[in-house]
Every structure is written in C-alpha cells, then in structure tokens.
Design a protein that fits this description.
Helices cover about 65% and strands about 0% of the residues. The chain contains seven helices and no strands.
Length: about 130
C-alpha cells in the first residue's frame, strides 16, 4: 500500500460494498475494523469514513487488484449471507478494476466449495494466474 490516501480508498471501497444491502452488520464492521488495523488506520478514521466518503481509486497493480477483490469477497461472506445484489456488485467491481471476467466468475462459483465460502488466498491467486495466460 503506497499512501494513506490509498489505504483510505481501500476502506472506502469496502464500506461502499458493505452498504450494498443498505446496512452494515456488526460482523461486517468488525471485518472493516480488522482491515483498518492491518492498514494501520485508526478506528476513529474508519468511523469518519463511515460518515463521509473518500475517493475510491483503482488499485494500480494486478496483485493489488486481486488482494482488494479478495477482501471484498471475504466481506461479502463474513455475515454468512450472499445476496444476489452483492454478488452482482462484486462481479462489477472486479470488472471495473480490470480483472478478467472468467477468473471473477470462477471465484464466485468455487467459493461455495469452501467452509463459510472463504476462498483461501492461494487458491484465489492461482485462479487469476491461470486466467492471465
């Protein structure tokens, strides 16, 4: 992660995605807080982002795009519910970031094979590697 603004952008995108179903559940907030901690963003800054919007930037590298897609996938599944609107939004975000549609589709299909639909990072990365060729 390059700058503080980039980190805020990552969180802002996650927050926007969490709001797809018009509410942020406690499990989603806890996930957002854990990501904020990993990014070295204070809880107060996260809470401010929940009230105000920071701009959302497309990650610059393929790996950063995949990592952000994985965060979004984890966020979608943290509450043990997947709504059609969330799946569609995640697919669209992946396309907006420039990820390959076939890889996005495969990840969304195989997530159902894992406990709590939590696709392991190495599996997700391998899917995107295969579809790059």
């Amino acid at each position: 992660m390059n700058t503080y603004q980039d980190k805020l952008s990552v969180l802002s995108e996650l927050i926007a995605f969490a709001r797809v179903d018009h509410q942020i559940k406690e499990s989603e907030y806890d996930f957002l807080l854990s990501v904020a901690n990993l990014l070295e963003i204070k809880k107060a800054s996260l809470d401010t982002l929940l009230k105000e919007k920071a701009s959302i930037k497309t990650p610059k590298t393929e790996l950063k795009k995949i990592v952000q897609f994985h965060r979004l996938l984890l966020l979608m599944n943290v509450d043990q519910e997947q709504h059609k609107k969330e799946i569609e939004q995640l697919h669209n975000i992946g396309l907006w970031m420039g990820l390959r549609p076939s890889a996005i589709g495969q990840v969304l299909e195989i997530m159902h094979k894992y406990p709590n639909k939590m696709v392991p990072p190495e599996v997700l990365i391998n899917i995107f590697k295969i579809h790059q060729n």
